[in-house]
Design goal:
Blueprint: H1 3-6, H2 20-32, E1 42-49, E2 55-62, E3 68-72, H3 82-96, E4 99-103, H4 115-129, H5 131-134, E5 141-146, H6 147-162, E6 170-174, H7 185-189, H8 198-209, E7 231-239, H9 243-255, E8 260-269, H10 279-295
Parallel strand pairs: 3-4, 3-5, 5-6, 6-7, 7-8
Antiparallel strand pairs: 1-2, 2-4
Helix pairs in contact: 2-3, 3-10, 4-6
Length: 298
């Protein structure tokens, strides 16, 4: 493990997701401890997207930005909101020069699949429909996120393809959760890794699926056909249970004719980019912004 990251392991809470209400508070406290981003170059606005039910979003607009990303927070499908994602959404907008539309989707277990995906799709459709009023080029809309949010982003790209929905230019997937089956080497062996481990992944999927069988709409790794999807950037952490399913998904996208950039970050663990003082974290975050800037350039 990267020594700069290893020093912080004792400070990471051992969330297990058995009590979602308590873990949401712990997650919010952890997010609040992250250094505040510089938002001087951003216009930030809270909006509500009309849907059933309505979906709260927070829009981060860098000056002269035309591309946009529908941004989905992490938290194992059960934690996180617009506030916990604020430090990351603001940094992404600043680094990428892209309008970031952060989505406050409904959480499991109170709202299992497909609630979160339905919310995300409603925001994607709204963004495309309101592009002119939002000052966004409708041909330059990406989807992206961290962890469970990245898994939702991958599912969102699949749904947009299958429903002939709004065109998605790019998918930015950071350590995505893609496969409920947990059959890969990393899922079977990373039982005690920091922040995310096998038991936590199991609980996350149990809450999200709510006892219903997984479909490709819920777990993108189950999709048989990955052709026709937007180009992708996929980042993995070496000591993350999701690592091998993410690498496999990247290879399958490539084999389906989809352009993919894959970066496996050595010495890192799931979510370790939150340790902003570490040099590897700074490189990870800067790369996410740079990749999105290139992907949505004219």
């Amino acid at each position: 493990m990267d020594p700069e990251l290893e020093a912080f392991i004792p400070l990471f809470p051992r969330a297990d997701l058995t009590d979602p209400v308590t873990e949401r508070k712990n997650f919010a406290d952890l997010a609040a401890a992250v250094p505040a981003p510089d938002v001087t170059g951003l216009d930030i606005e809270d909006r509500t997207v009309p849907a059933d039910p309505d979906v709260p979003v927070r829009i981060y607009r860098p000056r002269e930005a035309q591309g946009a990303v529908i941004w989905l927070h992490g938290g194992g499908f059960v934690m996180g909101d617009l506030e916990t994602e604020h430090p990351w959404a603001a940094r992404m907008a600043d680094l990428s020069g892209t309008v970031v539309i952060s989505v406050g989707y409904r959480l499991a277990p109170e709202h299992p699949y497909p609630a979160a995906l339905d919310d995300a799709y409603a925001v994607l459709a709204w963004t495309a429909e309101q592009a002119a009023g939002l000052g966004i080029d409708p041909e330059r809309i990406a989807v992206g996120g961290h962890s469970a949010g990245a898994g939702l982003a991958a599912a969102l790209a699949l749904r947009a393809r299958d429903r002939q929905g709004p065109p998605v230019r790019y998918q930015l997937l950071n350590q995505p959760g893609l496969d409920d089956r947990q059959e890969t080497w990393s899922q079977r062996h990373f039982t005690d890794t920091p922040w995310m481990n096998r038991d936590k992944v199991t609980a996350s999927w149990r809450h999200y699926l709510g006892g219903t069988p997984a479909t490709p709409d819920a777990a993108p790794a189950r999709a048989a056909d990955l052709s026709g999807l937007p180009a992708a950037y996929i980042a993995t952490a070496e000591l993350c249970p999701n690592r091998d399913e993410d690498i496999t998904y990247a290879l399958r996208l490539l084999q389906a004719g989809v352009s993919v950039e894959l970066h496996q970050w050595p010495g890192t663990f799931h979510g370790s980019q939150a340790i902003l003082s570490a040099e590897v974290s700074q490189r990870q975050i800067a790369e996410l912004g740079a990749v999105l800037r290139r992907a949505l350039a004219e």
